[in-house]
Amino acid sequence: MNDAVATRGAAEALIAIVGAEHCLTGDAMLPFATDVYRQLHRPVAVVRPGSVEAVQQIARHASETGTGLSVRGGGASYTDAYLPREEGQILIDMTRLDRIVVIDEENGYVTVEAGVTWAALKQALDARGLRTPFWGPFSGVAATVGGSLSQNTISHGSAAYGISAQSVQALDVVLADGRLLRTGSSAAGLAPFARFFGPDLTGLFTGDAGAFGIKVRATLPLIKARAAHRPISFAFPDFDSIHEAMRRSAQDRLEDTHFAIDAALSQGQIARQDRAGATFGMAISIVRSAPSLVAGLRQLVQAGLSARRVLNRSAYMLHYIVEGVDDAEVRSRLARIRAILRDIGREILATVPAVVRGMPFAPLYNTLGPNGERWVPLHGILPHSAVPRFHRALDDFYAERAGEMKRLGVWTGGMFGTVGSSGFLYEIAIYWPDEITPYHRAMVPADYLDKLPKFPANLAARSYVDRLKSDLIALYVAHGAINFQLGKAYPYAARLEQAPLDLVRAIKTCLDPDGRVSPGNLGL
Ligand SMILES: Cc1cc2nc3c(=O)[nH]c(=O)nc-3n(C[C@H](O)[C@H](O)[C@H](O)COP(=O)(O)OP(=O)(O)OC[C@H]3O[C@@H](n4cnc5c(N)ncnc54)[C@H](O)[C@@H]3O)c2cc1C
């Protein structure tokens, strides 16, 4: 059988499961089979199941025909995580599984299908004055609950309640042979009201990069949305002082969300707002996020006056969104944050977190740089004690490569966060001039894309960035960093000691004996 016939045969079987309009082949697959960073192999087809039963049938089909499966949620990742490692695989797009199954207020949980986006979940819960503790990454307009749970995503709510894996009770997972496995209290055939019933089977599937099975439903805890909130921001002259500020404040956990950026990223952000002509949208979001209309308008005027002035003088900025049951609680938390940071940081106008609070799930503008450059982030999580040495090693790393980076137009920025009290997230964003891909054409709003400068294909810069990425990953590893969004880009299996490696392999063999699901993820 030649390739074309094999492709047609596979497509026919898949069409019988999902219907012709939800089985894509040829160039129609490209936006799905490209991640933020690149394309690997073309799948044999992209299938878009609309029910749990359809996912089970696809898994059975793959098992019977010996076909590999890759799984895509919102496609907002950049670690080759849903890109087929080899030819001939099926790529499952989960975004039609987007039902909110039940909002059970009495028992305090919400069950969703795995393809629900965080933005859709927030909208449904907002209407009832409810939220989940972790409530999504900044990419939540596209990112799904299933994708985020598969890669230990952080951001909204993480400062107070931890990462995505800490906000899930139970999962329904389709295994490689099509069986449905349920975790938490559901493992005993009960409602998904509890996570911890014996060993933590729910936890087993968090951060697994989809290598253990296909999440089809997730149950998350519900809490009351807090009525009051305010943003607060600080500027720091150097990295050591912002790191110390973040280390200290992580132990108090006063905020719902925080993020920190260096000057390169801060300036990029303002440039982008200007270029997109998004000033009006930004203004609306500042006013919407302020505690009152008057406060919002005052912030807006000040924002216009001082944004550029502050950016020019601040090497690093730390932004908090603080919540409370009422404004008195919020003010008391702000007072404590000011007291903790008084001797090391300078309070600045809180425009940036006000914008983020007003528009927590912005369109995916950030998948390109402020001048239309290509973008890929890398990250590592380090213990605080290892951070200063890593930062200096990174400075040396850049200094050694400064000439070549300048010649090729490659530049970088830094974004930072804390993970619990003991972990520091050090994220590096790499930018380079290169042509956009089918991914950007599908995911970035067209009116924004139209206004950005365009670059021709730039193989020299692209392959340099490839090397830079590998070298940076090696630097993270050498400094003892661990990673959340493992996919195929960060080493996992290769770093484990023998006993945990044996266990992880045994689990994979038990759930997926022929290695059909997400081959290559986790290094398995
Ligand atoms: C602009 C932008 C902002 C971002 N902000 C953040 C942020 O604030 N915090 C953060 O942590 N990350 C962030 N990210 C990275 C990424 O968006 C998130 O990690 C997000 O959670 C990925 O979810 P997704 O649904 O897009 O997953 P995908 O990218 O589609 O997939 C990610 C992984 O999950 C697996 N997977 C997806 N769905 C399933 C399923 N149902 N069952 C089993 N496996 C599955 C895939 O195989 C893959 O391994 C950002 C990315 C962008 C582009």
* Secondary-structure arrangement, i.e. CATH architecture of the largest domain: 2-Layer Sandwich
Q: Tally the helices: what do you get?
A: 17
User: What is the C-level CATH assignment of the largest domain?
Assistant: Alpha Beta
Number of domains: 4
Radius of gyration: 23 Å
Note poorly predicted spans: 273-280
The structure class reads alpha+beta
Q: Could you say what the CATH topology of the largest domain is called?
A: Alpha-Beta Plaits
Strand content: 15-25%
Largest sheet: 7 strands, antiparallel
Number of β-strand runs = 18
Q: What distance separates the N and C termini?
A: 30 Å
Name every ligand kind in the structure: flavin-adenine dinucleotide
The order of strands across the largest sheet is 15-12-14-13-17-18-16
Q: Portion of residues in helices?
A: 25-40%
Mean pLDDT figure: 92
Q: For this entry, what is the oligomeric state of its chains?
A: single chain
Protein architecture, described:
The chain is an alpha+beta fold and 524 residues long. It folds into 4 domains: 3-95, Uridine Diphospho-n-acetylenolpyruvylglucosamine Reductase, domain 2; 100-224, Uridine Diphospho-n-acetylenolpyruvylglucosamine Reductase, domain 3 (2-Layer Sandwich), CATH 3.30.465.10; 228-362, Alpha-Beta Plaits (2-Layer Sandwich); 366-478, no CATH class. It has 17 helices and 18 strands. The strands form 4 sheets. It has a 7-stranded antiparallel sheet, with helices on both faces. It is globular. The model is unreliable at 273-280 (pLDDT under 50).
